[in-house]
Each structure stands twice: as C-alpha cells, then as structure tokens.
What does this fold into?
Amino acid sequence: MNKVYDVVMIGAGPGGYVAAIRAAQLGLAVAVVEKDVPGGVCLNWGCIPSKSLIHHASEFRSLQHMEAFGVRIDRSGFNYGAVHAKSRLAAKTLADGVSGLLRKNKVAVFKATARIAAPGKVALSGGDGNNLTLQAKNIVLATGSRPLALPGFEPDERDILSSSGILALTKLPRSLVVLGAGAIGCEFAYVMNAFGVRVTLIEMAGHILPSEDFEVARVLDASLRQSGIEIRTDTRALSWQKNADGQMVRVETGGKEDGIDAEKVLAAFGRTPNTTGLGLEEVGVKLDARGYVLTGDYGQTSVAGIFAIGDIVASPALAHVASREGEIAVEFIAGHPSLQKRVAEDMVPSAIYCEPQVAGFGLREDCAAAKSIRFKKSVFPFRAAGKSVAVGKTEGLVKILSDVDTGEILGAHIVGCNATEIIHELLLARSSELLVDDLAQTIHAHPTFAEAVMEAARGAIGKPVHL
It folds into this structure.
C-alpha cells in the first residue's frame, strides 16, 4: 500500500485497541492488524465471558437464600447452555462495540496475520491482508498471550481444558479437577461448584492465590471449602490418564502420591506470551529467556520505532495494564509523553471475581517481612460492618499496610463483597499521596461496605470505633 501510517498496532486486544483509539485522538494515522475478533482474548475468551458466568453462578447460588424464607424453587429445568449463550452474547456485544469505536475514530482495521518484515514494514497474510505490506513510522506490538501448556497437561479441549476451552463448554461436566489456584483457577472452581459440579482445586504453593496476601487468601479458601470444593495445597500434579470416570490425575502431596478422578481437567497454570512468528528476532527485537519482549521507557524495544505492550512484556498480565501501557506508548510517539514512563507495578490493582471477591495492590505482608520493611498493619473484618451484617455478606476483611512513621499507604488488600470495586478508594488515596489519617477522617455513608476502609484506616492510627 502507498499510505504510510504513523502507527500500526499488531493486535486489537485491550492494549492494541485502546492504544489505537488514543493515537487517533492525538491526530495520528493509525492502522490495526488483528487476525481474530477485536477485543482480544480478554473480551472474547477471558475477562468478559468469565465474569458473565460468575454473575450467573452467583445468582444461581443465591436461590438457596430464598429457599430459607420458604420459597420453593424447581431447578429441574436449569439449562447451562443458556448461561453459556448469555456469556457469548456479552462478549459479542462488547466486541461489536470495540469495532464501532475503531470506525468512529477512523482507525484502519485489517483482519489478517501480521509479521514485521523490516523496521517500518508490516507484512500481512490471510484474511483480507492479500499479502499487503503496511508502511509504518512506528509499530506497536500488542499480541497478548495464550494459556501456558505444561508437559503432560497440554490442553486438547476435550479431556484437558484451557481457560478458553472451559468457556466454550455448553454442557456442565459431572466433576472437574482444576490444576492451579491462581485467579483463573479459583474463578472457574467457584463457577463450576456453584452450578453443582464436584470440584477439586490443586495448588503447588502453600496457599491458594499465591500472588495475593495470605490473609485474604485464607478467607477465600475457607469460603470455597465451605461451599464443597476440595482444596489441596502443597500438591503437585504428576500425570493423568483416562479411566471409567473420564480422567484420573496423579498428584503428590508431602511425598505421597494418589489419584483424583474427574470427568474433565482444567489446566490453569498461567499464560505465556505470543511472540513467535512475528519476525522479532530477525529485525533485532530482543527477548528474554521466557519469550517476553524486553522494553525500556514508554514501551520502547531494542529497535527504534518498535514498541511492545501488554502480556508480551514482563509486567502484570492484566487487561488494565495493557491499556495503560498502550496509552503511554502512543502518547510518546505523538510527542506528548506522559510523566509516567512505565506502569508502576505497586500501583496496579489485582482483582479476582469469585465470591467473596479478592483485590489488592502494593506491599504484601510476606514480602515486607522478607525484605525487612517496617510497616504497621490494620485489619477490619466485614463482620463488624453494619452493611455486611444487614445483607448477610460478613465474609471478608480490609487490610491496610502503612508506613510506621509517616502513615503513608504502602499496600492494601481486601476480600469480601464488592472488594474489586472498593479497592479503588485506597488506590486513589495512595496515588494522591493521602495518608491513613486522611481516610480515617473522611466521612463514609452508613451503612456501606466502604465503611470498612474507613474503619481499617482508623485502626491504623489507633482510633478504632467498631472493633
């Protein structure tokens, strides 16, 4: 093609499409190359459909609360296929919305597979690429990630499922073994259990959600066990084989081996970057040993004019991180560099959406102890908050870690109803350099779940009221 684009995005996930729209807003000529559907894995086969399933799982589970009041509910007509269809509709609606936003901002979209032929040249193949080569002053790599496949547990989407494969199921299995109790594993364990599937959750680390605070993980662990999920930590999956029930997974706990039977197995070991087949090494883009692109400030790679964002760099593999990294990169390209040269990892909120929800950011207590960092800890349990008691959502706590001398917020962790929403008050306070004293003196409406934040802050300054 004769047209020279200011920026060509390779990938239209939450990193690529947000960056493309921001670049267009800044007056740049932008093209996006996406081999699948705009929105990426997150929107189409991750965040959005999984949250739809979680919502309906919570609604299904809530039926038992109505039965406690004498309401008779007939579940015999329950159709999981309809639940699945609703999740796909949510994904399609938002994917169509992303396509509309790209059109609105006059971003050229090519449905094709992309490869960097040389700095400033993106070769297209398949789809509507017709072997075109796009001329680009700058290239932004936003190709995302895929489920990590460990030897012996490679997903075939029939017996061994990936996170995408389990989202494609239209019929519930009788039983499920989930390998990996990170965010993905815990969320799907919750969903399947809520719909009546017998679930066993396996984690090699000492507690579920090993990247989260151990106290909030402990609360979720107790809740999942109470709902009937079998949880085995400090346990390693060794192998699997087919049997009469479906699959039998061999595991090792404390040096002892045994087998767990289930109809299906979900391999939730994490994700790995999509950096192969892009021509990166041929043009000199440097990768680390795990296949992640090495970047400096503003997402710049080792090759001038080529940037990388999202799951293909070694920052937290989260949609909101990819979006912010994309904005930082294109604002730099447009000559309006942000004061934020890269995403600060201690300012990134995590969010796990099973019930009770888990969220957090910044310093964790175990990390502080390992690094000999002095801190003050304040914990306020949901059971002492009026709203929690009123609506019967007393599982949970707010935990604030603050500087011993200044009261600066170093980290915060929440488990409980609406945790993924509440966390942002604490994150905003941290980014605005507010102290725990400022939160403690901020009037919170009563009764609300957010009062637990105020109470935790009051505890940090030695002025607790409701505890």
Summary: The first helix runs from residue 16 to 25.
